[in-house]
Design brief:
It is a single chain. The protein has two domains: about 90 residues, no CATH class; about 220 residues, no CATH class. About 50% of the residues lie in helices and about 5% in strands. It has eight helices and seven strands, in the order βββββααααααααββ. The strands form three sheets. It has a three-stranded antiparallel beta sheet with strand order 2-1-5, with no helix packed on it. A two-stranded antiparallel ribbon has the order 3-4. Strands 6-7 form a two-stranded antiparallel sheet. A hairpin with a 5-residue loop joins strand 6 and strand 7. Helix 2 packs across helix 7, helix 3 runs antiparallel to helix 4 and helix 4 packs across helix 6. The protein starts with about 35 loop residues before the first strand and ends in an 18-residue tail after the last strand.
Length: about 375
């Protein structure tokens, strides 16, 4: 919590005046995450949690249970719950992409928040209604930038291949592959993956969001937490939005040698973002369950794809082996080694009698 005039930190301060600039402030003018701020009695320091919808004391005026003196919310000393110092305040933390800054700054700040401050980004999402169009536009920029960089790298790789072959005098005439074929073999897989990846994301995100929402509603608990979570926080649209905003962590894939952890970073970012989002909309208990739901939601499509791929590979391998076995035994032939160390197939030998055992010719 900071002063709105000089940005001075106002935690653990008695009174209603900023010690830096002298500006008066009121606790009720700030909104906090539920259960993220402790209100201490100004007389005996008895702690009370801000459990209201805006993280305020409910009721705002009561008699202290310890010293039995009358206290108000604006007279208490505010302290953030340990570990919640950076995300206790809910006001003034917009999603960077939705601000009026330049597109480069908005994009960069959102990616940095997804990488290193997912909880802050989750709280910023919770302060507004779903913004799927903005989130989808941000995701399109992330995927488009990654695809463009990949194509540039592939073009550079093909150029290096052409230059290297030209410096070596080109392919010889002794059966070597032409330059165009060599380039196609190098560029082909990369081009296919660059074009197919957006389609895979288009299938993966809604599927993961649907599974996460289903798991959360099945195991979201009971009582108030469940009803609040179902009505206010973890919905399919919100899960899709969280996955789109957290995709900024995929830019790690552009960093050499560490790009392989981009998907793992995306999962971690989405899990923490979901936890903070649900904590601000429901309660800490619901936030932990939502984090597990998002983790299972993002991992389930991967496990499903691996399982389907394993089954397909098994049947393809079995069919191939059956074909090889059938071709080796077709025609009743016997496979033998020829003198040139290659496999050959000869017909089965006919059963004949040795010459010395043949019956003598009859005498005329």
């Amino acid at each position: 919590m900071r002063c709105k005039s000089c940005d001075h930190i106002l935690w653990n301060l008695p009174g209603n005046t900023c010690p830096e600039c002298g500006t008066e402030f009121a606790r009720r003018s700030y909104e906090f995450q539920p259960y993220a701020v402790i209100f201490k009695c100004p007389h005996c320091e008895q702690p009370y949690y801000g459990a209201g919808e805006k993280g305020h004391l409910v009721p705002s005026e009561f008699e202290c249970q310890c010293c039995h003196q009358s206290i108000t919310m604006d007279s208490c000393v505010l302290v953030p719950v340990p570990g919640r110092e950076h995300d206790a305040v809910a006001v003034g933390v917009p999603v960077p992409w939705t601000t009026d800054a330049g597109i480069v700054k908005r994009f960069w700040d959102t990616c940095v928040a997804a990488l290193f401050s997912p909880r802050v980004l989750g709280i910023a999402i919770s302060a507004h209604e779903p913004r799927l169009k903005s989130a989808l536009a941000f995701f399109a920029v992330v995927v488009g930038l990654s695809t463009c960089v990949s194509f540039i790298c592939l073009a550079g790789q093909s150029l290096v291949t052409v230059v290297a072959l030209g410096a070596a005098g080109g392919p010889s005439s002794g059966g070597s592959l032409p330059v165009s074929t060599l380039i196609a073999t190098q560029l082909g897989p990369g081009l296919v993956m660059g074009l197919v990846t957006p389609l895979l994301y288009g299938l993966y995100i809604p599927l993961a969001a649907a599974i996460a929402t289903l798991v959360f509603r099945m195991f979201g608990g009971d009582g108030r937490d469940e009803s609040v979570a179902r009505n206010k926080s973890m919905s399919f649209a919100r899960a899709v939005e969280i996955l789109l905003w957290s995709s900024g962590s995929l830019l790690v894939s552009l960093v050499p040698c560490v790009g392989s952890i981009a998907s793992i970073w995306w999962i971690i970012s989405a899990v923490f973002m979901t936890s903070a989002f649900v904590a601000s909309r429901a309660s800490p208990a619901a936030s932990s369950r939502s984090a597990w739901a998002m983790l299972l939601g993002m991992l389930s499509p991967i496990f499903l794809a691996c399982g389907v791929g394993a089954v397909v590979a098994y049947f393809v391998f079995s069919s191939a082996m059956s074909g090889i076995s059938g071709s080796s035994t077709s025609g009743g032939g016997v496979t033998t080694f020829s003198s040139s160390s290659s496999f050959g197939s000869s017909p089965s030998p006919a059963l004949t009698e040795p010459p010395d055992l043949a019956p003598p010719n009859p005498q005329p």
